[in-house]
Each structure stands twice: as structure tokens, then as C-alpha cells.
Recover the amino acids of this structure.
């Protein structure tokens, strides 16, 4: 078993299956693109074990608590890892995380975007450790997100050449 | 004629002239930056054949329909291609699209950002084909955009060395 | 004294100390990441000379004027330069700016995001000059930002190998 897969198992983390695109919706892009050593990750939402976008839905500062947002951001990280494993074959190929762009569906007056996106940063650091998992980040408030999802995150990282 | 220019002609697509910056506005940045094989594309809006920001203006979910947003996203793609051709000289130099960051001016409750940004993704794929045109993407809802434009898109791609 | 430090001194610009994270907040990410010649800069806000997030707070188009937003964007640029100097040791190592992603806390109807983010672009160009300082840019309207800050900016640049 690969090192990262062992780590995921030790942490009791299970990666979701491919995203089940709702009928009638077309997503003409790749969830991950590998180009040489560069890896681009599309905006991902929180996915459930059934492959669907995971509840709860809604805005932080309105329908959802910071803790619910934090958990949603963890699910986003797992969804990104699942896409990365499908594209890379083996998550051990990941050399370093670079950029995490965290977008939080924010009701007027909600400013705790960092506390929400910490759910993603913490999971990346737990799984990849403080060297490989270190990353730069923005955590900002969006007016709306597809599917009424509370969190969407885009990323960039590198694999070993 | 270059391959991509032939493809644009076959599709009946015409690239707009340089953006006419409204008087009194200063935009102290480059629409495209080429650095080695990397190409950065600034946020572009939908441009008309007169070089001005193209109508209709306003928010999706309020003033504009999804179909109008889709057409606006196509115009954004054409505006990006026009900037790229001015910077690169020849669009055939483009090796691969990497990242499309699609920002949709969204009224409260509007969540069909993917259907809007499909206008850009579809045009890139029509013009560059499924290999070179494949890209990662985010499609998210902004509170406001400059000029009341419905769509703004930023991108990154690579050229042949 | 390094060339860029001399330039900062000649312009009367002083870089702020490390950001004083408010008690109870955890920011588990790096403000700057250097990877080979690539440099990623996390989303920065306007910082005061005391290291704290700088007033005024609030939304453009509501509490704040465009001129206040412009000055805030200048402070963001100084905060990014301070983080870069701490990471790089010497700002002369910077070869070229690539991407500036400017996010403006925007009240409904506010569309002058470019005029606000010009505060950052202008400062970069004053300090680094028209060659090294040239960059691509987006300037867009966010629903909310952490700390009620009016401006947050993320960037990418390159250093000499």
C-alpha cells in the first residue's frame, strides 16, 4: 500500500467515488490536469460517499455554522484527493502542495472564511505532513456557488518528475 | 493561414479588436503575459466587435438569463483569444490550456454558474480540440464585476517552447 | 542596500512587521511559498505598521470610498512585499511579477474594482519598474472578506534561478 493510502487508512479517511453529475448538467472540463510536473485541480465541492454533492447546502452565516463549513471543507479536500488519485494512480507521486484557493458561500456579514477553509488545510497537513502539505492559501467570501454548496476549493500542486 | 485561424474562420468566429478602455479609466496591467512557455491571461470580459465591453450588462438570476450568460462567456473566450493572438502573433503556438477561472455576476439564489461558463469551455474545445483545449475550471458566483459585466474569466495556458 | 530596498526608501515606503494573528484564530498555511523559481503569495490584506490588519474596514460602495480602497490596496502590496522579503531574504531576487488577483469587498452596485486594485498595481510598478513589475490582473467583487477588510490580493511571481 502506498504511503499516503496508508496514512488515509490510519486516519480512517475514505475517498469518494467519481462525482455523479446531475442529469441535464454538462461539465466539459477535467477535474485534474497533469502537465509535466504541474498539477491543476478544478474547483471541487464537498462530495458524499455516494458520489453526490454532500449536504448540508446553503450559506455560512445564514443556514450553516462555522463547524458545518469546516466539515464541508474537509469533504472538499477528500474529493480533491479522490480526483488526484484517479488522475495520478498513486498519491505518493505528489511532491508538494502549492496553492489552495478557498471559496466560501457567504451571507452578508460573515467573515470567518479562514476558520472554514481550515478544514481543508488541516486535512492536507494531516495526510501529507508539514513539508509536502504546506501551501499558500486564500479564503474568501463568494456571493453564490453551484449547487448551493457551502465551499468550493481550487488548487495547484506538483508531482515528482 | 494558421491552423487555429482556419478553424476560427470555419466556425465563423471573428476576434474583436483591442479593448477600448473607457475614458478616465486606467488599467496598468497586461492582458497577457508570456514568460518562457507559460502564458498568463488577465481577467477578460465579453467584448463586442467595436472593441467595447459588450452588452447585455447585469447579474445572472436577475437581469440576465442563463442563455445570455452562456453567450457572454463565449464572447469572453473570443476576447481572450484576441489578446492571445496579439501577444503570441500566432495562436498555433498554444500547446495546451491549463486553467479557466470563470466568475459569474450572480444575484442571490443563482447557482447555474457552470452552465454559464460552459460558453467559454465549449468555444475553447471547438477551436483547440479535445487535447489542446482540455482544461481545469472553476465557475463561481461573484458579488459584483467591473462594468456590470455578467462574466469575467482569467486563464493560464502553455505555448510550445 | 539592495536595489529594491533603496527604491522603497527613496519612495518613503516602509514594510510592515509580520502579521499579528488575532488570538483564537489559526492560519495553518504559509504567506509565501518558494518552489524552485516559482513564488506563490497567499491572499494578503492591508496591514498597518503595528502588524495588525489596518483600518478602515468595510465594503466599497457602502462604508468606503474608492480612494480609501486604493490606499488599502497599496497597503496590501506593502504587506505582500514584507512577506516576500521575509521569505526571500532580498527582494532583488524577484525576477518578474506574473499574476495579481485582486478581490474587493463590494456592496451591491459597486463596480470600480479596477480603480481600487490600481493601488496595488501602481505600487508594484513604482517599486519594480515597468519590466519586472508588469503583471496580469483580475479585479473583482467579493461578497465578504475575512476581518471585514476592503481588499485581499493573491499573487504569483518568479525569482532568479
Amino acid at each position: 500500500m502506498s504511503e499516503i493510502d496508508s496514512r488515509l487508512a490510519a486516519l480512517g479517511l475514505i475517498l469518494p467515488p467519481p462525482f455523479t453529475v446531475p442529469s441535464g448538467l454538462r461539465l466539459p472540463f477535467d477535474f485534474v490536469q497533469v502537465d509535466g510536473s504541474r498539477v491543476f485541480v478544478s474547483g471541487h465541492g464537498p462530495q458524499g460517499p455516494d458520489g453526490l454533492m454532500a449536504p448540508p447546502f446553503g450559506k455560512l452565516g445564514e443556514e450553516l455554522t462555522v463547524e458545518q463549513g469546516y466539515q464541508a471543507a474537509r469533504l472538499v479536500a477528500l474529493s480533491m484527493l479522490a480526483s488526484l488519485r484517479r488522475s495520478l494512480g498513486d498519491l505518493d507521486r505528489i511532491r508538494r502542495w502549492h496553492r489552495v484557493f478557498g471559496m466560501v458561500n457567504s451571507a452578508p456579514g460573515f467573515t470567518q472564511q479562514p476558520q472554514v477553509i481550515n478544514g481543508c488545510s488541516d486535512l492536507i497537513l494531516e495526510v501529507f505532513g508539514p513539508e509536502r502539505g504546506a501551501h499558500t492559501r486564500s479564503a474568501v467570501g463568494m456571493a453564490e456557488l453551484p449547487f448551493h454548496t457551502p465551499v468550493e476549493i481550487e488548487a495547484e500542486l506538483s508531482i515528482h518528475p
